[in-house]
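# nightly structure sweep
# worker-07 picked up a monomer target from the shared queue
# config: single-sequence mode, recycle default, output format = structure tokens
# input follows
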Amino acid sequence: MSSMLARPVTTSASIAVFFGVLWMASAEVAQDRADVAQDRPAGMAVSKAELLAMTPLWKGERYADGRPKFPDHLLQRMKAMSIEDAWELLRKYGYHNQFEGGWKILHKDKPFVGRALTAAYLPGRPDLDEHILRTGKAETRIGRPNSWPIDMLQKGDVYVADGFGKVIDGTLMGDNLGTAIYARSGTGVVFHAGARDLEGLLRIDGFNAFVRDWDPSEIKGMVLTSINRPIRIGRAVVLPGDVILAKQEGVLAIPVHLAEEVVVTGEIIAIKDEFGHLRLRERVYTPGQIDSPWTDEIKADFFRWYKARKNNPSIPLEEIEKHL
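# output follows
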């Protein structure tokens, strides 16, 4: 009888030992994977997994590397937005560090928009320089490091680089790289650094550049440290995939998940302003009436005018009314 009772105890003990061994084996495998991940070189560009984790609020299309891809048709509409209207909406959502001004601009009368591809530079130091060159060689990157971000540009991208404000020996491009940038992106650059070959850059039809200043020196004493990671441009924080709106006032980095709302809101505000300015010139309403919440009478007047207006955007009237 006692031997029969002992068997379940032995079996239970065996099962416990089995699962204990299995748990320890699983823990060892998990630790090995963590050690491998920790030891794996990060590389010059951010990983797809990190890009996805960095921009979880974006639910739309992405590039193969994980960078958000804001739609082309909305990018074209974004170009008509005012910096002030877009900035005001971003502040509403708590994004207070998205604008930077004080640029030298290649063509002040040619605004541009695009998706940010970011790069960061640091002052050079020999051991770090060698590490970056080894990393680039292992990743089969071609040429000098300041050309590597250019090789990754897609149509509609804007190359945004933090060169820590360096101008003398901080020229991130001349007309050769400028030509390559425009051939790949069709837009322009935003460099918290210098640029050279102004006359040559002016000959690149359609290209634009926002830089800290122009200087004849060549790049020296700088090292590229990352591609497509968060960077700081003056007081603006830029993430890869942000929508860049570059106008005379300066540069606005719009978080991609808010960009469509910026477009729609900006178009409504522009139409509202168009109506308001017209009625002010006609002296139908006073400035106090136009700048205050509109009465039902003014709203009715607006919608009569709007229905007769040509080339209206495809925005529901209910959405427009929310902003009156």
